[in-house]
Amino acid sequence: xxxxxxxxxxxxxxxxxxxxxxxxxxxxxxxxxxxxxxxxxxxxxxxxxxxxxxxxxxxxxxxxxxxxxxxxxxxxxxxxxxxxxxxxxxxxxxxxxxxxxxxxxxxxxxxxxxxxxxxxxxxxxxxxxxxxxxxxxxxxxxxxxxxxxxxxxxxxxxxxxxxxxxxxxxxxxxxxxxxxxxxxxxxxxxxxxxxxxxxxxxxxxxxxxxxxxxxxxxxxxxxxxxxxxxxxxxxxxxxxxxxxxxxxxxxxxxxxxxxxxxxxxxxxx
Length: 269
Hints:
There is one protein chain. By secondary structure, the protein is of the alpha/beta class. It has a single domain (3-267), classed as Alpha/Beta hydrolase fold, catalytic domain (Rossmann fold, 3-Layer(aba) Sandwich), CATH 3.40.50. The protein has helices spanning 46-50, 77-90, 103-114, 135-149, 151-163, 169-180, 184-190, 223-230, 248-251, 253-267, and strands spanning 3-7, 10-17, 28-32, 54-58, 96-101, 119-125, 210-215, 236-241. The chain has an 8-stranded mixed beta sheet, sandwiched between helices. The longest helix has 15 residues, at 135-149. The radius of gyration is 17 Å and the shape is globular. The two termini are 29 Å apart.
């Protein structure tokens, strides 16, 4: 799999999956993973989407096989948007669809608002509210936990709510170990910045068609709370799936992927 160097401090690992008919010219879908994840998180989505679209799955700076970030790295949402724009320029793609999960959805909403000329459609799956009360206040404790116990300890503490009550135990164990491989230094700088970002002012600026997917009892917010911020995005719609997980892209991979595929098809050029 290839690497791309958008800046001097980053070797970005990425995957391109394209199983479309070779005589066609497919549009491109950029998939953005969440915190303590990588491009591998989209394992269940890729077979569905890549038959119809060219799928680009980068490892965000700091995560997966991309360069870990130092504990004092000055993260910004614009820096991440620049990384992804540079990658898509490198691949020769001017406009594309964006699909994102969890904190990836925070980044993606800011991306769509601040780079409207690049994004055709936006789909966010199991993503936090644009501002989460109490997150910044909880950061010092999280930092201490990362320093003392590592990332896997943190992942294990919240995996039940993340994947929901019906997810198989083998899957819970796999996800805990998978997320635990993230560099502690990355988490120390990511949590106070991107994980606690406030994107409330970005929502009304999102110009592209937008799909929001959640579950009935997501730990990231009630359906009513999710609908309240979703309706601040012009030309957006909400899909609510049954269940109590908040990592919907994994716990509900097939129905969520089907909903996103139908949404992209409806708005494709």
